[in-house]
Amino acid sequence: MSSTFTVLTRFLFVVIGIILISAFVGLFTNGIQLDAILFLENILHIVKSLVFPENLLILGPTNRQYSIFINFWDYYIYSLIIFLSSICISMIIGLFITYVTILLPQKLNEGVSKIISLLESLPDLFIIIVIQFTVIYYFQQTGTLLFPVAGSSQNNTYFLPIFSLALIPSFMIYRINLHLVNEEWKKPYIELAKSKGFNKSYIFFSHVLRNIVPSLFSHSKTIVLYLLSSMVIFEKLFNVYGIFTFITSYPNPNVIAFTLIMFFLPVFILYALITTLIEKNTGQRLEW
């Protein structure tokens, strides 16, 4: 019961934070208006809109007001698919590269680590341009378009935005994993497992991975924040019609607050479920 209350309290604090930030952004929607009264009015308007969703209105091209739910869910679901898929893929790639690395001889292990560190240091913009250029060049040479390099309002593109968004975080996860695995590999139980004849693969998946998951989960908040900040750039470069495009198109404080809360909700639920599973299987209580 207390655990559920703690989770709900944490969610409430995040919602309050989003409301305050959205109300503050509203001070800059129509020029700079640093007015405390306007700030309080924005907060009240946001709260009313969250309680009564019929107040969530946007201004159309003909200066008529419409409910945001006419096209909100298309933007929302599209962004959510890209974001959650990127998280999952980056985790899988990061863990896979870590597993392959520990199987390599020491010199190759160090070489792979240096290459990954170099790739991680590359700017997002550079990686996106290289990926898009590669697909376009292949199309020019062969006449075959492997994947759409940009979306449109009628046709959404998935593969390249998801892959590109997941690439740098996968290197970050690899670097974190490798550090955790190297620390774990020095512990006495590893020598005991080796003396019993267990190979590296068995030790990694049966023992090491289980022990590093709590620490990896603690570091994952940085990965999530990185993905969120990167999505703004990715939506522009891939012409993705996601929630950040929706927010910039309709920068009303109540629309911004509702959109961010809705986007945060599934991420929060995912974190709550993963925390419960980790605590149940490892006995470690996590703070997030």
Account of the 3D structure:
This protein has a two-stranded antiparallel ribbon. The two termini are 18 Å apart. The chain has 288 residues and is mainly α. The chain has ten helices and two strands. Strand 1 (57-59) and strand 2 (65-67) form a beta hairpin. The chain is globular, with a radius of gyration of 23 Å.
The H/E string reads HHEEHHHHHHHH
- The number of E-state strands comes to 2
Structural class assignment: mainly alpha
- Unreliable spans are none
Q: What helical percentage do the residues reach?
A: over 70%
Q: How many H/I helical runs? A: 10
Mean pLDDT across all residues, rounded? 80
List the SSEs and their pairings.
Elements: H1 2-25, H2 36-51, E1 57-59, E2 65-67, H3 72-103, H4 106-121, H5 124-142, H6 159-185, H7 188-195, H8 200-237, H9 243-249, H10 253-282
Antiparallel strand pairs: 1-2
Helix pairs in contact: 1-2, 1-10, 2-10, 3-6, 3-8, 4-6, 5-6, 6-8, 8-10
Keywords:
mainly alpha; 288 residues; 75% helix; two-stranded antiparallel sheet; single chain; 10 helices
Task: Describe what is shown at a glance.
The chain is mainly alpha-helical and 288 residues long. The protein is built from 10 helices and 2 strands. The chain has a two-stranded antiparallel ribbon.
